[in-house]
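Hey L., structure's done. Input below.
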Amino acid sequence: MIYIADETIERWIKEDVPYIDLTTELLGIGAQKGKISFAARSRTIVCGSEEVSRIFAKFGIETTFCAPSGTPIDAGEKIAEGAGRADALHAAWKVSLNVLEYACGIAERTRKIVENARSQNKNIEVVSTRKGFPGTKEISIKAVVAGGGLPHRLGLSETVLIFDQHRRFLSEDLSGMIGRLKTRSCEKKIIAETENIDEAVALTKAGIDGIQFDKVSEEILRDHVARLRALNPTLLIIAAGGINSENAALYSATGVDAIATSSMYFGKPADIRAYLEPIYNL
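Output:
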């Protein structure tokens, strides 16, 4: 479970309904009873349904159905449904649809990457980078997990990942620092990103825990992995840069332990149908 704070739900609602729903107010339909339902127009992985149920609750809408996040569904299958006053249903409509379409889209793209990668290596992990759009991390990470992936790095405070941008400021070679870094950060793994196999070899010999190769083609990466595994069979090796559902299987076949990608964040939202209708027998 990924907890999304109440203040986030409130912010989503406030962005779309800052004061009143002027259209529903002028039409005078607010007091009528009705129901709202969301269904997939194509195959997808459900995500955000629990948040939609919480949006419903904010408006006094009773949730009558909610498919759990992570559920694979086909076209026409229901995701969520609720019943309540028409003014509440219209206020909850668009924000709920947006949450579902964006979250399900990320979850489905993650699923495709994971499935393609594991067609070559059933033990490989697909991890999402920190390139999500600011302000959307909570629901984005939930969607990645719903699709079968995991977050690579949730923030700068979490892991030790050394980039070339860090090395430019060092006054000594990174290889000579690995022992000290591992002592000071004894609970964390020390990982460095590189495109250079000679640097990767030097770091591996120095005892680094992991190497992340950035933008290295799968043909070259296969040789890099074999060379480093000969030095340290337990070395963590991650492939990153330009990896998506189309080439995930090729990168997985190189023998890396994980694929780090941001491609699940970018693409068309899921196609979700929203339907509102009156209920006359309440």
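The mean pLDDT is 95. The longest helix spans residues 86-118.

-- N.
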